[in-house]
Amino acid sequence: MLETVLLAVGPGDSDRSGLLAEAALEVANPADATVVLAHVFTSSEYDDVLDRLDFDPTVNEIDPDEVAARHATIHDIRDVLENHDVDYEIRGAVGEHGPSIVELAESASADRVIVGGRRRSPTGKAIFGSTAQEVMLSAPCPVTFVRSDGFEE
């Protein structure tokens, strides 16, 4: 039985937030699991988000959980989970996407990880790597990959 499902989102997931929410409902709702909504930011993405969401620049340390909670993709998925009475918590992290998702899965004692992505050409994978592939190979639990229809070079 699943107790904790980590649903990891990033900057490219706004177009598939509905698909990610559906995937979380499929595995969490029947099992009454808690969904950990996690948004991972690289350092530069984090700085951009702090500016865009009007966080006070004079504050030395801003909690990544608070930043994640204010992100639109997290809001969209949170609303779906609330409408289906699914328990959730929100976590944010700053670092490289793949390793940070794996670390969040480990710290949350996740029984399942859900990540999104696009189909990629072999060249695209070789040049840019694949966050989803890294998570699938390194996560401490099974991983569900939610693919959008777009193809990314």
TrEMBL record:
Pfam family, one: Usp
CDD domains the UniProt entry points to: USP-like
Top-rank taxon: Archaea
Domain UspA positions: 1-147
Family to which the UniProt record says this protein belongs: Belongs to the universal stress protein A family.
Name of the protein this chain belongs to: Universal stress protein UspA-like protein
Species assigned in the record: Natrinema pellirubrum (strain DSM 15624 / CIP 106293 / JCM 10476 / NCIMB 786 / 157)
